[in-house]
TrEMBL record:
This is Cyanophycinase. Its EC number is 3.4.15.6. It comes from Piscinibacter koreensis. Exopeptidase that catalyzes the hydrolytic cleavage of multi-L-arginyl-poly-L-aspartic acid (cyanophycin; a water-insoluble reserve polymer) into aspartate-arginine dipeptides. Belongs to the peptidase S51 family. Keywords: Carboxypeptidase, Hydrolase, Protease, Serine protease. SUPFAM superfamilies: Class I glutamine amidotransferase-like. It catalyses: [L-4-(L-arginin-2-N-yl)aspartate](n) + H2O = [L-4-(L-arginin-2-N-yl)aspartate](n-1) + L-4-(L-arginin-2-N-yl)aspartate. The keyword Cell division does not apply. PANTHER family: CYANOPHYCINASE.
Amino acid sequence: MTTDDPSGHRGHLFIVGGGEDRKNDKLVLSRFVELCGGPDARIFVLTAASTLHDEMWALYDEAFEALGVRQRSTALIASREDAGDERIARELYEADGIFMTGGDQKRLLALIGGTRIDEAMHRALRERGACIGGTSAGASAMSAHMLTEGKANPLPTKGTVHLGAGLGLVSRVIIDQHFSERQRLGRLLSVIAQNPYLLGAGIDEDTALIVRPGRGIEVIGQGAVTVVDGREMLTNYIDAARHESLELVNVRLHLLPAGARYDVDAGAGEPASRPVPRGLRQAIGAIASIRDAAERAGGHDAGD
């Protein structure tokens, strides 16, 4: 599967930990615009995670305008009927960048999961090389399995986190946001104890994890991305009582600060990155893989 478009665009996933600067240097949003194709890019702001459509749209419309983007658009998605609108789906499909705002990831999935605009986003990434971004709730929703509830306990605890189906743009990763600021390591460890096949990615505020599908990852912004890998972990999760603190042995934790870039399969002409350490290679390979969208192709054909 490829995410390279004949126009030269390369599909990217742009996963923001929330709290990105929208007023000053706009480092994170500026890079998003660059990956979309610069000021000439068409950017669609999807506010469906929030009940405050007008306010969210105004914030990002102003920020993207200040960054020189001339073609900015949005649509009010207040029902699944709206999310099935062919005109809106076509607009998403034809966008060079789609940015999902914060709010509530459960609301976002309830409104758009499995609809025309859901399909349009996947096809825009896969067929047109669009850049798909999300911040806070919009970031959490990008994974196939997303956090829907969970207390930020200081220690991993059984029965305190709940998962739901996400958009599936990333397949084997649980994304948590506002990570360092809200001290969510215990929460992410709770998820990994329950689902050791999955990787955890905790993204700090004003920080973005950029995924180049099939190639590698990059971290930009003011913070870091914490990757938790429990695939070789030993745990007492099965025997522990509900709400009991968990024992986790042999959990790998990788801290990737802003500026980190790793390629498992760099394309021709891409800037060189550091060699991927052996202990990190499988994790980056899992994050950078993207679910084959062929299974989704049976849905609506926005953009045809």
